[in-house]
Amino acid sequence: MEASLPRSKYEEDVFINNHTSVWGSWWKDHQWGYKCCKQTIRNSYCTGSAGIEATEAAADLMRANITRKEAAEEMPAPVEEKRLATWGTEVPDDLVLDEKKLSESLKKEDERRREEKDERKRKYNVKWNDEVTAEDMEAYRMKRIHHDDPMKDFLN
Ligand SMILES: [Zn+2]
Question: How does DSSP assign 31-67, residue by residue?
Answer without folding.
Answer: EEEETTTTB--TTPPP-HHHHHHHHHHHHHHHHHHHH
